[in-house]
Each structure stands twice: as C-alpha cells, then as structure tokens.
Amino acid sequence: MTAEYRIAEDRLGGEPTLVVSAPNGSTRVVLALRGATLLSWQVGRGSAGDNRPTELPELTELTDGYRDEKELLSQDGVRAGVLAPFPNRVADGRYRFRGDDHDLLPGRRADRLIYHGFARETPFELVEATTEPDSARLLLRSTGIRPGRYPGYPFAVDLDVEYTVGDRELSIEIRATNVGDTTAPHAAGWHPYFTLSRPIDDLDLHIPARTLIRTDASLIPLHGEDALLPLDGSPGMDFRTPRRLGAAVIDACYADLITGPDGRTETVLSDPATGDELRVWQYGGYLHVFTGDTLARDRRTSLALEPVEATTDAFNRPEHASALSLEPGRQRRFRFGVRYASSGT
What we know:
- This protein is mainly β and 345 residues long.
- It has one domain: Beta-galactosidase, Chain A, domain 5 (Distorted Sandwich), CATH 2.70.98.
- 3% of the residues lie in helices and 41% in strands.
- The protein has helices at 69-74, 321-324, and strands at 6-12, 15-21, 27-32, 37-44, 59-61, 81-83, 94-97, 100-103, 125-132, 135-145, 157-165, 169-178, 184-185, 189-191, 193-194, 204-206, 209-213, 228-230, 243-244, 251-257, 265-270, 277-282, 286-290, 303-308, 325-326, 331-341.
- It has a 9-stranded antiparallel β-sheet with strand order 9-10-11-12-26-22-21-16-19, with no helix packed on it. Strands 15-24-23-20-17-18 form a 6-stranded antiparallel β-sheet, with no helix packed on it. Strands 1-2-3-4-5 form a 5-stranded antiparallel β-sheet, with no helix packed on it.
- The longest helix has 6 residues, at 69-74.
- The chain is globular.
C-alpha cells in the first residue's frame, strides 16, 4: 500500500497548529489555526517525486514565519498573514462605501494606521482534510467577520482558506462568501516572507509587471495620472529582466502584471550561486514587494512577495468599487501559490 501525506495536530505554545508531512520526509508544513497562518515550509533538496522509503532528506526552510507564540500574537511583520477583508492600508482608517462613511478606528485621534484586515488574527478551524501519496489538502474556515465585531466593518463574510501541499509546491485559494444581507467591500491577499538561506541582497529578482503604483510618504497611493509610473521610466524599480536585488529598498505595489498563456503571473526569486529558485504565482491582482527594512528582527534576511487582489487604500478608490463589491450570497476566489526548484531537480 502506498503511503500518503500525514496531517497531525500540534501546538505553538498555547496556539493550535497543524503539521503536514510527506511520506518520504521531503516536505514539512506547519500551519497555525490563528489566521490560517503558514508558520513554516520546509523542503528537501535533491530529486523530487520519489516516495520510496529512503533516508530522510535534509530539509531547508523557505519561509521566514513566526517563531513562537509571542510573535504570532504580536503580529509584528504580518508574517505569512492572510489579508482580508483588505490588504495593506486604509488611509486614516476611514472609507466610504455605497454612500455610508465607516471608521475602522473610532475614537482614535492619533496613530490612525490600520493595515492588512482582521483575518490574520481570527481563529480558523479545520473543516476538511484529504491526503494522497503526492499531496495533502486542508480547508480552514472562519465565520468570525460579523457586524459589530470589528469597528467600521458592519458586514458578514465567511472565509475559506484552502492549502494544497505538494512535493515542492504550496497552492492557496482564499474564498470569501458574503453571508449577510448587504453588499460588502472585500479584497484578499497573502503576506509571506521567502528565504533561500542567504541575504536578499545576493539574490536575483524577476517581477513581470509593467507599472509601479506611486505613493506618498505614508505609502498611500497618489491620485490621478501621478499614481501610475511606467517601469520603462524607473530603472531602479524595474525587474522585468531578472537582476540582483542588491541594496534596493522596496515597499511598493506592482501593477499590470504580465501573464502567461494560462493567465498566470510568476515572480521569481533565485540564488545565482546555487541555482535554487522560488516561483511565486498568482491569477490576477497585484504584487506587493517588501524588502523587510523595518522589521523588528532579521531585517533584509527574507523578501515579502505578496499576491493581493487590490491595491493599498482600494476602499477609498472609486475606480475599485465595482471590483471590491461582494453581493449577498456571492463568493469570490483568489488563487496563488509558490513552487521551489533546486539545482538538483
């Protein structure tokens, strides 16, 4: 009988986690139920797809996630956070939707910074799991976004986060369902930090995008024609041709993503010294890139490559209103993932 992937319950301090492992020991994934958060993704170097019982391979860590319960609860850096019902920032914590004004930080006059939604701190539960010889699928669900629970967001949205763990690939789909009786603004995203075990300055980056979204000092996109910067005129931020990241400082959103024949965009982070690479793929949306210069720990040791459905402050952009609107009873899906290839494959 062929062995299958395994899913086991564990804990990170007091926080429940799930551990997914391949039958040959070549893959190990750890997920926290809080926020459906990826804590660790480890893959063995060498040949892929061999499920024969052999000596367990040495695993390499490919993400820079929360290391302990304290980090997970603090949410510093939003490491691998599931972003919903909005990614990135909402200017001044306020927005107007369908004629109504909403305040996400009521009563607060100073420090009105809010970002990355509520899902990353919401408890999820495992509602379905299947295992095969070559993969495991886990469906995590939250029913925690309800009117009155989060100030400034009087809407009811269920979230499903489906992880598919393969030999060298993670596939993720976020499904948002409006279970209320009014139209809700909603956009999703993911905030992972990736590592190839070397400082990011030494790595090559390829971003297939034509446009950069320009922002003010608070990282809020500008309005009008000034908001979009064609990358033809900004060589320092143009990675359409793979090149060394070097000392570049980036906290920016890339738009007009270039897709392949299948409609998929692939951003590639690679190590020229080893030939190892991570291919972050997504269907639609935008890509936010952050070089981690302001992280509380391990600055510039990993790179955030964030697939997002909408730009920063989309809740305040009339041009995004239609795309954000999730009608009662309707569901929206956002699919993305990442694949690892080593010099041995």
